Amino acid sequence: MSLAVAYTRAKLGINAPLVSIEVHLSNGLPGFHMVGLPETAVKESKDRVRSAIINSHFEFPARRITVNLAPADLPKEGSRFDIAIAIAILAASDQLPREHLKDYEFIGELALSGETRPVDAVLPAALGCVSHNKQLIIARDNAPEAGLVSDLSILPAKHLLEISAHLHQRQLLQPWDKQATAEADNHQLNSKPDKQLNEVIGQHHAKRALEISATGGHNLLFYGPPGTGKTMLASRLPGILPELTNQQALEVAAIYSVAGKGLRPQIWSRPFRAPHHTASAAALVGGGSTPRPGEISLAHQGVLFLDELPEFSRRVLEVLREPMESGEIMISRVAAQSRYPASFQLIAAMNPCPCGYLGSERCSCSPDQINRYRNKISGPLLDRIDLQVQVSKMENRQLLNQRTESSGESNQQIKQRISAARKRQIKRQGKINNQLSSLELKNICPLNSEQQALMDNAINRFALSTRGFYRVLRVARSIADLEGRDTVATEDYQEALSYRITSDCKQ
User: Fold this and answer.
1) How far is CA 343 from CA 295, 302, 351, 386, in A?
2) Please, are residues 142 and 156 in contact by the beta-carbon 8 Å criterion?
3) What is the SS3 string spanning 56-72?
4) Is the pLDDT of residue 498 over 90?
5) What is the pLDDT, as a whole number, of residue 505?
6) Closest CA relative to residue 124, chosen from 116, 136, 141, 113
7) Which pLDDT tens digit goes with each residue over 103-143?
8) For the chain, what is the mean pLDDT?
9) Which DSSP state fits 489?
10) 475 pairs with which residues across the strands?
11) Residue 11 in 3-state DSSP?
12) Is the distance from CB of 210 to CB of 237 less than 8 angstroms?
């Protein structure tokens, strides 16, 4: 029988659907035909595979070769199918045994010499492979990434001949040593120290807001004159956030893999993305003819920092509104739809006016210029930012003081307190406070008569929207968790309101 089937996986968002490579050899004029919605890079694999087979001292069949990539309605892209196609051709021509092919999945590109080359989106493929209880044969350079998946037998190969020898049972491929990978990851994690929050001079109010933001995963806006430490404060947030769980780390690593960025150096740390204000909407949310994740997905389970917020195009900022609520982004194209997770924590910074020195003699901005500058941030977007904190210019005595604040709490001490608060949230409601629905908030944050009067006055006086009201409740709940209280006190609501009501920023 001149029919053989090998298995591989395609790339669809952060998923990797199974693809069967069916190869049939028939009589007739020699030819190489490929069907099953292959895009250009896949079609070009015909020449790569032919040269790799010949240069590996195999015989390329002088027959009519039909390659079907099933399912036929799934678009296929990239060079990831090369190894599977070559193996299926060799098996169909009886140069390789075909009885064991069902136990393996093959992913990787082939050089003309027969050497294997790495491809992107290997981690989602590895996750899919382990769910089907198969062994994964991949390029050697992709092994560290696939090694993140436990309970998966990974067989790295450097050449097509090594894969052939393994299938013939002549010289078996050695499984990848995952323990060595884990030790290397731990070394990398411990080798790079976090930026310490106690390095920031003064700004105790802003530090407090940053800690509350980390506790509940709340969005945060710093506004104030240039040089007051807004960017410095934002860059310290990842250092006080709890480390990623195994599942979260795999999710983030899968996104980076699909984006073609390879394995993150510190896979257990929270991602921190800081795109330039000239970034386009597609750069932020993802896109392209073949959809790829953008900055909001690369910041999944981490921090998206937008410095100089009003300098971003208003159209670009508006695309953030829906992902901030849903925690995911759907990118639709003619060929396919891709869904990427985007559960990020937004940290933004801005000046009070175009020149940044509003209220001082240095400011030369007209009221019209100030209004145009601030109106670049829409009300609905600002309404989705839970904490809005003014960062003031430091006093001269603080600046001239030669002593540092190194005696303050370290990142590790703050992280322990935040981790304890988050564990309290997970135990109580199964999620962090920023993800609570309005119905859940009514049960978790019941208001007594005094608190009802306080919130009623705030709604009327400061025109809080329904969304703004519930975000105040979430922040108050995080403050109580940070302090270790089971119930939310009135002072918690007062503090939450103080971060919410920033008339200087809104007007």
Assistant:
1) 11, 8, 26, 15
2) yes
3) CCCCCCCCEEEEEEECC
4) yes
5) 43
6) 136
7) 999 999 999 999 999 999 999 999 999 999 999 999 999 99
8) 90
9) -
10) none
11) coil
12) yes
Q: Return the number of other C-beta atoms located less than 10 Å from residue 247's C-beta.
A: 9
Helix (H, G, I), strand (E, B) or coil at 319: coil
Which residues contact residue 217 at a Cβ distance below 8 angstroms, ignoring those fewer than 6 apart? 345, 432, 433, 434, 435
Region 278-286: what's the mean pLDDT?
93
Q: What share of the chain is helix, strand, coil (3-state, %, to 5)?
A: 45, 15, 40
CA atoms within 13 A on the CB side of 251: 19
The answer to whether 135 and 100 have CB atoms below 8 angstroms apart is: no
Residue whose structure tokens are 């591989």: 8
The architecture CATH gives domain 192-431? 3-Layer(aba) Sandwich (3.40)
Give ranges for CATH 3.30.230.10 in the chain. 3-180
Strands 220-223 and 345-350: parallel
Q: Which two tokens stand for residue 461?
A: 């006086």
Both tokens of residue 174? Answer: 């050695």
Within 13 Å and on the Cβ side, how many CA atoms surround 46? 17
Q: Which of 72-86, 181-195, 373-387 shows the lowest per-residue confidence on average (mean pLDDT)?
A: 181-195
Q: Which fold has domain 3-180?
A: Ribosomal Protein S5; domain 2 (3.30.230)
Task: Say how far apart CA 288 and CA 77 lie, in whole Å.
Answer: 14
